Amino acid sequence: MLLFFVVLLIILILLLRKVNENYFILALCERIKCVEGKPLEEKVCIIPGKTIFGNNFDVLNVTPEEKWHLRRKMLTPAFHFNILQTFNEIFKEESLKLLEKLKHLQHEDVNISDVIDEFSLNNVCETALGVKLNDIDGASEYRAAVHNLSTMIVRRVCNPLIISSSPFLPSEKSALKHFLAFFFRNSYVKTRYAMLDTLLHNEAQGLIDHQGICEEVDTAMFEGYDTTSTCLKFALLNLAQYPDIQKRCYQEIENLSIAQKW
């Protein structure tokens, strides 16, 4: 009887090893293979997963600790208090543009998500890179790419079977193509000192390479925009849900305006 179970266990292990060649056993999804049938790992570098499920259930893609500390230390001067103060003019300019746009749309149904996304992206672009997004060729395609990228990430995070192993759809490939290193493929004129200047200075000292700069710029643009945009939408939602709080906020702003006049 014992011999039977041993043989059965060996057969099961061999069967699982065979199946594991084509599938992630614990993640229940198929492994990607090249056209000629060879494993993808033989053609490109696959980042090892941090769990027993491979990289399919590693929802949070975190930077290695040493790299994160080096990059954060490198970027800290770009967000010095004196530099942050100069951002007020950008926020004021973009806020006035937003108000003017909403005035023209006050008698129409407005998708506030689209309006806030554009507003946030404009602010992050000029504060982090020192350039106006609307002055760059292909800005509309970049905005669409950022939006599509957000949708893609949510879809993949919500489905563990396609988080990292599923091939990109044509629309996803197009979004990634327009998003990745967009600011390095187009010509533009910088108007102020920004995070990008700090990165270029460190590149000249050999502390970071071109690929690293692209990574930091793309990360700052997407994550900075997404966080800001989401917070603003949530704030507007709450103001709409609670008119009494909205009235108090409005009155506070009015009082500040009156105080500034004096």
Shape: extended
**Quantity of strands, as a count:** 2
Secondary-structure arrangement, i.e. CATH architecture of the largest domain:
Orthogonal Bundle
Say which CATH homologous superfamily of the largest domain is assigned: Cytochrome P450
In terms of structural class, how would the helical and strand content be classed?
A: mainly alpha
Report the CATH topology name of the largest domain: Cytochrome p450
How far the N terminus sits from the C terminus, by CA atoms, comes to 95 Å
Low-confidence stretches: 51-61
Query: Approximately what portion of the residues adopt beta-strand conformation?
Result: under 5%
CATH top level assignment of the largest domain: Mainly Alpha
Instruction: List the helices and strands in order.
Output: HEEHHHHHHHHHH
Pfam families: p450 (PF00067)
Signal peptide: 1-21
Keywords: Heme, Iron, Metal-binding, Monooxygenase, Oxidoreductase, Signal
Cofactor: heme
